[in-house]
Amino acid sequence: MSSEKHKLVIELEAQGIYPAAVIERLKRHLGTSVKKEIAEAVGITEQKITHFQKRGTVPWMELLSFCTKRGVSLRWIMTGEVKMDPGEPQKGYEGALAVIEALQHDKKTLTAQLDEAEKERKKLVTEKKMTRGNNNRSGSRDKHQKN
């Protein structure tokens, strides 16, 4: 494990988040120990589970979405604590999920707009090249006609 990746695991553990324990709580909640089933339920690949376990790369958005949809405390999944903060909703993180979904929608919209702008840019570049080529040809014809 590289020192940078090892640092991530140490930082998580300093916050009481132990990747192996998180996976165990997911297994317990889902009633399965099959990595593929856990990955599908959370909405990630098996490889992401491995990265989380070994490197400490937390799939935060997917875990937040998973907890919200299933009414499970993210705090419990991440730390094993069942205590709720006074302002924390009892049934999940609907507000945060709504923000995440809005951001994902905005990202899709912006990506589509960028793709469209890139197509337009390429079209303009092509037209400019063609215009330049036509101007060069007509300029050489004019020179030949004068001679």
Q: Give the overall shape.
A: elongated
Radius of gyration: 27 Å
CATH class of the largest domain reads Mainly Alpha
The tally of strands reads: 0
Task: Explain what this protein looks like in three dimensions.
With 147 residues, the protein is an all-alpha fold. The protein folds into 2 domains: 1-92, Orthogonal Bundle (434 Repressor (Amino-terminal Domain)), CATH 1.10.260.40; 94-147. Helices cover 76% and strands 0% of the residues. It is built from 7 helices and no strands. It has helices at residues 3-14, 19-30, 35-42, 46-55, 60-70, 74-79, 94-146. The chain is elongated, with a radius of gyration of 27 Å. The model is unreliable at 86-92 (pLDDT under 50).
Keywords:
147 residues, mainly alpha, 434 Repressor (Amino-terminal Domain), 2 domains
Q: What's the structural blueprint in terms of helices and strands?
A:
Blueprint: H1 3-14, H2 19-30, H3 35-42, H4 46-55, H5 60-70, H6 74-79, H7 94-146
Helix pairs in contact: 5-7
